[in-house]
């Protein structure tokens, strides 16, 4: 693994473990047993490392939430997207937990974030239309767009919301699972009988893991 990649991987690990604000470039260099000068050869500062992590996050986010052939079993589709939410929130948990602060101090990153989220919203609307076509959801276009916005809001802000309520709360897989259950609760009222049955199956699986 090249040094530049090692720096990004190590930074992500340290940010997740200790919080981005508590980690400096010196911490990252020490973790890798390299000199600060070696690190600065690849990244001028910590913010550049965060940008690189965001690029990885954005790529994975859009790949996971690109609409796919919905001829496959509907429960498989639901689980695929739910698993993707969990995986991303866990892998990039430092970013979710401190999103407003991280974006507020970096205008360029904020611009890139908005652009990615706009593309994501478009993809999510298409995905939700697929679930309407599969007769898992029963709602019109206006309600569908509103639902997508609400689900996106929960996924984006769940960890920062929890951190604001209890600042010393440790981000855990259980905490993320609670956010996923919250999203399922939001979808239930507009689910068809078949859709509700499948949501309950997914809900039971999440509660078992949590």
UniProtKB/TrEMBL annotation:
It comes from the Bacteria. Residues 24-43 bind DNA. One of its GO terms (molecular function) is DNA binding. InterPro entries: Homeodomain-like_sf (IPR009057), HTH-type_Tx_Regulator (IPR050624), HTH_TetR (IPR001647), TetR (IPR025722). Gene3D superfamilies: Tetracycline Repressor, domain 2 (1.10.357.10). Keywords: DNA-binding. Residues 1-61 form the HTH tetR-type domain. This is TetR/AcrR family transcriptional regulator.
């Amino acid at each position: 693994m090249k040094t530049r990649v090692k720096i990004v991987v190590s930074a992500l690990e340290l940010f997740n473990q200790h919080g981005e604000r508590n980690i400096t470039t010196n911490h990252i260099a020490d973790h890798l047993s390299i000199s600060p000068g070696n690190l600065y050869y690849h990244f001028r500062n910590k913010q550049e490392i965060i940008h690189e992590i965001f690029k990885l996050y954005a790529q994975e986010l859009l790949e996971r939430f690109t609409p796919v052939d919905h001829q496959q079993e509907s429960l498989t589709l639901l689980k695929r997207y739910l698993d993707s939410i969990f995986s991303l929130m866990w892998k990039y948990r430092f970013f979710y937990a401190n999103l407003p602060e991280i974006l507020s101090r970096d205008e360029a990153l904020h611009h890139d974030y908005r652009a990615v989220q706009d593309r994501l919203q478009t993809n999510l609307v298409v995905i939700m239309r697929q679930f309407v076509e599969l007769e898992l959801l029963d709602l019109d276009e206006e309600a569908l767009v509103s639902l997508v916005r609400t689900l996106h809001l929960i996924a984006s802000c769940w960890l920062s919301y929890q951190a604001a309520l209890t600042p010393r709360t440790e981000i855990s897989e259980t905490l993320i699972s609670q956010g996923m259950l919250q999203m399922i609760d939001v979808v239930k009222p507009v689910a068809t009988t078949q859709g509700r049955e499948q949501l309950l199956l997914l809900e039971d699986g999440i509660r078992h893991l949590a």
